[in-house]
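User: Fold this; tokens only.

Assistant: Input:
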Amino acid sequence: MAIITISRQVAALGDEIAAAAAQMLGYKFFDRQSIEKKIVQLGFSPEKLKKYDEKKPGFFASLAKDRDEYLDYLQTAVLESAAEGNCVLIGRGAFAILEGVPNLFSVRFIAPDSIRIARLMKEFNWDERRALQRIEESDANRLGFHKSFFNLTAEDPAHFHMILNTGLFDVERSAFVISEMVQRLVTIDQEEKGQRKMADLLSAQRLVNKLVFEYKLNINFLHAVIDEDRLILQGVADSAALAEKAVQIASQFMPEKKVESCISVVQDFKAYP
């Protein structure tokens, strides 16, 4: 049960190749609409979604409480989708959310600007200036999105198993390369370890959601990590009592884990205006 994530530049044929690879492998394909629909079903409003989805947040949007809520819903949507296994997920920072999962295979598609411009000009009947403007806007938005939410850049090749220049390969050959690599490189042992890792990631995220959305704990940047028999809580709170309450609830939610708090306490801390 491999999990494939696709990161792509605009006009690098990422969506087309992802769909073709999923079909070749018989995998489920989670495209932009699938993930957006799941985020909204989880409780995030469509109006708020427009401000954040694969975009560089504006100044005030980056400081708003909605920003943390969007990230929690996004991570839940990606994790729940990936947990189904044998799937392809495109965009939405999935490669970052799932990084370290043993049965993950992350791919990034790029192409020279000249080829991307030509593709956009042909697809939309644009002139060269308009096509270049679209590329610059998209590249800046995706760079800002990954930096704002994951503090990394998709331009760093270290985050991927493979980077493919689609200026050299068409959709069918690119999809074939991915399907062959996944079938040859993802082992049964990795699949089993990946399933356990996914279960831990989902449990940790669902705990965060419980603390934030059900118990309304105002802990900024709240994050939970499961490390074997330990559950580690991270974030920033404005009182020790708030951090202790989070530990108590987490202990009730996961009694089999030893709960540790790495929540920083900063009095009068306000991350949002």
